[in-house]
């Protein structure tokens, strides 16, 4: 009768072997649970269900200029996300842009870094004024450049980057 010996895996072999998917599922569960807990806590405190004053009650105490600045900040944040996403989609659908970005990777890397830094410096150097002006246009151009830089990453990263987006 032949004796079959089972070889015990070493720690290195266990660490280098392909995963079963369980760690990713546990991670997803932790992230989903944390997000649910955070949203629940925001609702609990924000709607005034706790014993302390909620955000709504405290907002009545704030001066009008504070509320206006908060509103403007969130408006710029949301608009920036929208402009960046629209520019990324536009660049991703443009064959000429994708050809330029993928043909000579070192040159396009330097060009995009220079464009991002340059447009950011221009947007920061213009003084702020209310309404639609030169600073807002420079900021929109900067958001568009950031979107154009993000677009080729979708080709390089594949499903992982698309999921993150």
Describe this structure in words.
The protein has 165 residues and is mainly α. The chain contains 8 helices and no strands. The radius of gyration is 25 Å and the shape is flat. Helix 4 crosses helix 7 (134-157) and helix 6 (105-125) runs antiparallel to helix 7. The chain has a domain at 63-164. It has helices at residues 11-16, 22-46, 55-59, 64-93, 95-103, 105-125, 134-157, 159-164. The chain crosses the membrane at residues 21-47, 74-94, 106-126, 138-162. It is a multi-pass membrane protein. It is found in: Membrane. Its main location: membrane.
Task: Please outline what is shown here.
The chain is an all-alpha fold and 165 residues long. The chain has eight helices and no strands.
Averaged pLDDT, please? 81
Q: Number of helical runs?
A: 8
What about the largest sheet?
none
What Rg do the Cα atoms give? Answer: 25 Å
Shape annotation: flat
What's the N-to-C terminus distance?
A: 59 Å
User: Which structural class is indicated by helix and strand composition?
Assistant: mainly alpha
Low-pLDDT windows of residues = none
Q: What's the helical proportion of residues?
A: over 70%
* Amount of beta strand: under 5%
Spell the H/E element sequence. Answer: HHHHHHHH
Let me know the number of strands.
0
């Amino acid at each position: 009768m032949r004796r079959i010996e089972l070889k015990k895996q070493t720690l290195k072999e266990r660490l280098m072997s392909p995963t079963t998917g369980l760690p990713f599922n546990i991670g997803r569960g932790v992230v989903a649970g944390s997000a649910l807990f955070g949203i629940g806590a925001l609702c609990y405190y924000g709607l005034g269900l706790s014993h302390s004053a909620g955000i709504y009650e405290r907002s009545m105490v704030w001066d009008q200029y504070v509320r206006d600045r908060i509103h403007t900040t969130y408006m710029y944040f949301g608009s920036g996300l929208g402009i960046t996403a629209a520019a990324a989609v536009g660049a991703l659908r443009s064959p000429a842009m994708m050809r330029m970005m993928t043909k000579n990777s070192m040159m396009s890397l330097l060009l995009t870094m220079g464009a991002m830094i340059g447009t950011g410096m221009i947007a920061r150097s213009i003084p702020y004024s209310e309404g639609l002006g030169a600073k807002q246009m420079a900021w929109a151009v900067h958001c568009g450049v950031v979107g154009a830089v993000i677009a080729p990453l979708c080709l390089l990263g594949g499903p992982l980057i698309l999921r993150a987006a």
